[in-house]
Design brief:
It contains 13 helices and no strands. The chain is mainly alpha-helical and 369 residues long. Helix 1 packs across helix 10 and helix 2 packs across helix 10. It starts with a helix and ends in a 17-residue tail after the last helix.
Length: 369
C-alpha cells in the first residue's frame, strides 16, 4: 500500500464521529483554546516517526504488543492486550451509539437503524476484505468527513457575511481566545494541557496503538511508512481546524438564541446536526452528505478496531494455545470469524450504551435567548 492512502486512513481512525461532533461543540461552547492541540501534532509526529515506528517496523509483528514480551515477559504482553481489547470494545460501542443518538434527536433518523446500518456494513467489509478493504474505504470516508464539515463552515460564513462576520460574532461572545499560559488545573484548557497532553495522546495513538501500527506496517519500507505519518499531520490538522471553525460558524448562527437554552436540543453534541437541519435542510443532497460524513467517522473507527482486535486476539492468545499447530489458511479463516464476532459485540455494546444514562452536558453560554 502506498503512503497517501495510509495517511488518510491514519487520520480517519483518529477523527471519529464523536470527534467531529465534539470538536465543533467545544469551540461553540468554550472557545478556541482547544485549537492549540494542533501544535502538539507537529511536535509528536517526528517522535512517533523516528522514535517508535522503527522499533515496530524492525519487528514486523502482527501484534504491536509482541515488543512487551521481548522486553519484559509474556504475561505483560497479554495484560496489555487485554486492556486494549476491553478499551476498544467499549469505545466501538460508544462510537456507534453517540452519533446515532445525536442524529435521532435532531433529524428523527432511526437510532436503531443507524446503529445496525453502520455496524453491519463495517463488520461485513472488515471481515471479508481485511486491512486492504479498510484502508481503501478510509480514503473515501475521509473525503466525506471533509465534505460534511466544509459545508457547515461555508454555509455559516455565508450567513454571517463572510469569515470576518463569523470571527466578529465569535469575538463578541468571547469565543476567540488568546493562548492561556496559566498553570492552574481548574482551568478547562491551557497551552500546557493542550500541547503536552496532546503530545501524549498523539503518541498513545500513533506511537503504540495496535490499529495504527497495523496500518503503518502495510507500507513496504520504513521510509515510506514514516512518510505516511508526515502526510497524516497536515490532513489531520486541516480537518481539526475546519471542524473548529465550523463550531464558530454554528455559534454565529445561534449566538442570540441559543438552542440549548431554548430547549430545542438537550446536549451540545446535537448542535452540528441541528445547524444542518436549520440552515441546509432545504438544499437537495446536503443533509444526506452530512449524515454520510458523520457516519463515515464511525465506519472508519469501528472498521479499524474490528480488524486490530481480531489480529491481537489471534496473535497474543490463540496462536500459542488452541491454534498452535494450525495452518495459515485456517488461521486466516479464524481471524475473519473473530473479526465478525467483535463486530457483533460492538453492536451489542452500542445498544447497551443507552442504559448507561448520564446527565446532558451543562452549557456555559454568555448570552441568553
Amino acid at each position: 500500500m502506498s503512503a497517501l492512502p495510509v495517511a488518510f486512513s491514519l487520520m480517519a481512525s483518529f477523527m471519529s464521529s464523536i470527534t467531529l461532533l465534539g470538536v465543533s461543540s467545544e469551540n461553540y461552547m468554550y472557545g478556541t483554546q482547544f485549537v492549540l492541540i494542533n501544535i502538539s501534532y507537529i511536535i509528536a509526529t517526528p517522535l512517533a516517526a523516528y522514535g517508535f515506528l522503527p522499533v515496530f517496523f524492525k519487528l514486523q509483528a502482527t501484534s504491536a504488543y509482541q515488543y512487551l514480551e521481548l522486553r519484559f515477559s509474556r504475561p505483560v504482553r497479554q495484560a496489555a492486550s487485554v486492556a486494549f481489547i476491553l478499551q476498544m470494545t467499549l469505545y466501538m460501542g460508544i462510537v456507534l451509539y453517540a452519533p446515532a443518538l445525536a442524529l435521532n434527536a435532531v433529524t428523527g433518523l432511526s437510532k436503531v437503524g443507524s446503529i445496525l446500518a453502520v455496524g453491519l456494513v463495517c463488520t461485513f467489509y472488515s471481515t471479508i476484505g481485511g486491512m486492504k478493504a479498510v484502508l481503501i474505504a478510509d480514503v473515501f470516508q475521509s473525503l466525506l468527513m471533509f465534505s460534511a464539515v466544509i459545508c457547515v463552515a461555508v454555509k455559516g460564513s455565508l450567513d454571517a457575511g463572510g469569515v470576518k462576520g463569523v470571527l466578529e460574532i465569535a469575538d463578541e461572545g468571547l469565543r476567540l481566545q488568546a493562548p492561556d499560559f496559566r498553570i492552574d488545573p481548574k482551568i478547562r484548557h491551557t497551552v500546557w494541557t493542550q500541547v503536552f497532553g496532546g503530545i501524549f495522546t498523539f503518541l498513545s495513538l500513533y506511537g503504540v496503538n495496535q490499529a495504527q501500527i497495523q496500518r503503518l506496517l502495510t507500507v513496504k519500507s520504513l521510509k515510506k511508512s514514516q512518510a505516511s505519518l508526515w502526510l497524516n499531520w497536515p490532513i489531520l490538522t486541516a480537518l481539526s481546524l475546519i471542524t473548529s471553525y465550523a463550531g464558530l460558524s454554528i455559534y454565529s448562527e445561534y449566538a442570540y438564541c441559543d438552542p440549548l437554552l431554548t430547549k430545542r436540543i438537550t446536549n451540545s453534541d446535537q448542535l452540528l446536526p441541528l445547524f444542518v437541519v436549520d440552515t441546509m435542510g432545504n438544499l437537495p443532497g446536503i443533509p444526506g452528505l452530512f449524515v454520510a460524513g458523520i457516519f463515515s467517522g464511525s465506519l472508519s473507527t469501528v472498521s479499524s478496531a474490528v480488524n486490530s482486535l481480531a489480529a491481537v486476539t489471534i496473535e497474543d492468545f490463540l496462536k500459542t494455545t488452541v491454534l498452535r499447530n494450525t495452518s495459515e489458511k485456517k488461521i486466516t479463516l479464524f481471524t475473519k470469524l473473530i473479526a465478525l464476532l467483535f463486530g457483533f459485540i460492538c453492536l451489542g455494546v452500542a445498544f447497551l450504551a443507552q442504559f448507561l444514562g448520564g446527565p446532558p452536558t451543562t452549557p456555559k453560554i454568555v448570552r441568553e435567548a
